[in-house]
Amino acid sequence: MTEFGCRFCGAPLSLVVVDLGMSPPSNRLISANDDQPEPFFPLRVYFCERCHLVQLPQFQTAADIFSEYPYFSSYSKAWLAHVDAYARMAVKRFSLSPGSLVVELASNDGSLLKCFAEASIPVLGIEPARNVARAASSAGIPTLTEFFGKSLAAQLAADGKRADLIVANNVLAHAPDLRDFVAGVQELLKPQGVATFEFPHLLRLIEHVEFDTIYHEHFSYFSLECVLAIFAAHGLTIFDVQEVPTHGGSLRVYAARTASGRVPSDACSMVLSAERAAGLDRYAGYADFGQRVQSAKQSFRAFLQDSAAQGKRVAGYGAPAKATTLLNYCGVKSDLVSYTVDKNPHKQSKMIPGVRIPIFAPEKIFETKPDYVVIFPWNIKDEIAQQMAGIAQWGGRFVVPIPVATLYLAS
Ligand SMILES: [Zn+2]
Questions:
Q1: Distance, CA 337 to ligand 1 centroid (Å)?
Q2: The pLDDT value given to residue 75
Q3: pLDDT higher than 60, residue 402
């Protein structure tokens, strides 16, 4: 037994889904001259027997984790195409007009809201990380630098700011106080308003052994079953769901106030039965996951050790949070992957936490001509393989690290 209680229902947590050992905060990149010791926290995922929520206990405050955030949405082309298509769909499906209000929670650098603003629809971003919020404001997207929850929602509602559409992409998993966050959404919606949420689907994480998407900033790992229950407890009904390919397989759910009388679509029951068939609603469904994660680690390490034995040189591409989990759990340091590169200048000349692999600008790959380039953000592997296609000039190959280290040929 632990002293941890479930983030949703409060039941004590004792059933471990997987234990990834001790890991540093994944987005706390280390400066080149920083020789201070780093904090490490247990990365142990639990299953709640009562409500089935899969989750990590929280070790740091949200302010520690999210006040500066090195991720800028606008650095991924695939993501920009995704949000543009979303905005066009939402304007049509929900008949949004210059009289509507679109609010985005965790609006990052404003790249999604920009799509609505360009269609003359009023927008408001809410983003706790100061650096990305500043970038949004200077791009003309009104942004509040605050954590979202019930009290902020009530304040906005009192000022006459209720939303026709609330967008919350990849933020539900990061909400330390899940109940307060969902209660805030209910409060902020107009009576007939709609909220959409995107989050990585637990079904895909388990199926494809995406263990590197487990990190401290990511508190909850959702099935539709759990999201339905959490929303229902706060007066929200999920009336539709779609599977979207982002982040290794995500769900987009559509929610409205239960009082609005919307009826759930057939898609909801289809996803629920797929989850039951995979055993996500019982602890036995997770029984072999830890073993599959260990096999993935062995496969990645064997590939790197064989490459080193053959005198091949290996570099990485990208410095996402998932690289921190992968490299720390697999014990991979700069003797096996000598460096990685990232387009985001905020990450360059820093190091991956824990394993301290240095991060350079992408040009470094063309200067040093490594034999293999490991793509850490495998969720956008096509985009990266296209951008870096030039490595073929010297016979360089791409490698995708999980679930089995595999040479990757761009499609
Ligand atoms: Zn629970």
A1: 39
A2: 67
A3: yes
How many helices (H) and strands (E) would you count in the chain? 13, 19
Upstream peptide bond of 403 is cis (omega within 30 degrees of 0): yes
- Cβ(246)–Cβ(379) under 8 Å? yes
Cα-to-centroid distance, 290 and ligand 1 (Å): 21
SS3 for 375? strand
Tell me if 129 sits within 8 A of 68, measured CB to CB: yes
For CA atoms 101, 106, 110, 112, give the dihedral sign: negative
Residue 65 has a pLDDT of 67
CA of 164 to the centre of ligand 1 (A): 31
Predicted TM-score of the model (pTM): 0.93
The pLDDT value given to residue 179: 96
CA–CA distance from 270 to each of 104, 264, 266, 353 (Å)?
28, 11, 6, 40
DSSP percent split of the chain into helix, strand, coil, nearest 5: 40, 25, 40
**CA–CA separation, 39 and 119 (whole Å):** 45
Cα-to-centroid distance, 118 and ligand 1 (Å): 42
pLDDT tens profile 43-98:
999 999 999 999 999 887 766 766 666 566 666 777 889 999 999 999 999 999 99
What is the Å distance from ligand 1's center to 54 Cα? 8
